[in-house]
Amino acid sequence: MNYRYLGDSGFKISEITYGNWVTHASQVGDDAAISTVHKALDLGITTFDTADTYANTAAEVVLAKALKGQPREQLEIFTKVYWPIGRKGPNDQGLSRKHIFDGINGSLKRLGVDYVDLYQAHRYDYETPLEETMQAFADIVRQGKALYIGVSEWTAEQLREGHALSKQLGFQLVSNQPQYSALWRVIEDRVIPTSEELGISQIVWSPLAQGVLTGKYLPGQPVPEGSRATDEKSGANFIKRFLRDDVLEAVQKLTPIAEEAGITVAQLSLAWVLHNPNIAAALVGASRPEQLEDTVKASEITLDDAAYEAVNAALSGVAEIDPEKTYEVSPKSRPA
């Protein structure tokens, strides 16, 4: 497993990071989840990403069970705050000072740790002054409850404003967690150049486009039984946009590129993501331990420019590149 620095910090994370968004306490039972985390550790993954909202706090509990007994100093544990949790009352969501402090205290208790390595704003909160949000994060860092602060799906302008405040308040804003894959490239035009300027890395989710970039979904064919596309609890709504025949036909063009490189389509797709130096890590999940054996090997692959451009050419016309899509992710008002 290779490691990369997170932003302009001295903090390193595993290039392949384990995320438990749609698996723990949802798609798979606790025993399977624990086995998968143990497999991740065996394969060299030391970085684990979760959020309080996943399975309405239950995913954090399962991750804690899976990591129990592991030396804390050998792990990098991330979580997030923003979306409604618990009883989902008016102060159980957003990035107010109250919710951020309730959020970090709840997450630490559920995860069974004294601190998290990275605490992330899961979206931008238009209803809370940014100064209030960033001051709360600064205080959490000073209290030792989080070592670093990150965000998720912030626009280039929001990153710039947040970064300026973090410098004034004496802490590091080191990361952004956007969706990014060879089929979803909307951050390339504005978010990545701004992040490079500011010293902010990307920790990207859905680097395999919900599994479409493994090549297992075929044009004109029913989706595989038991796949994510058939399970409403495991992100079926997110994958629908990629299940058009024109997209699936383009993805099939990746097979000869992967074969020429001696790797799988999934490994090719992950290596494509990691080809960008601003990407610190690709988040992967798994419902079975053996799924990780294929994806982890992507950390060993250095994709040459020719293969990278071949992927771009194969997906030209179906990959989403519109930077305006980055402005559509955070709700303009807090979800009820």
UniProtKB/TrEMBL annotation:
Q: Give the molecular function GO annotations.
A: oxidoreductase activity
| Domain NADP-dependent oxidoreductase, first and last residues per copy | 16-314
> Which Gene Ontology terms describe the biological processes this protein takes part in?
methylglyoxal catabolic process
- List the keywords (alphabetical): NADP, Oxidoreductase
Tell me the superkingdom of the source: Bacteria
One Pfam annotation reads: Aldo_ket_red
Q: Which InterPro entries match?
A: AKR, K_chnl_volt-dep_bsu_KCNAB-rel, NAD(P)_OxRdtase_dom_sf, NADP_OxRdtase_dom
Say if the entry is tagged with keyword NADP: yes
Q: Family per UniProt?
A: Belongs to the shaker potassium channel beta subunit family.
What is this protein identified as? Aryl-alcohol dehydrogenase-like predicted oxidoreductase
The organism encoding this protein is Microbacterium telephonicum
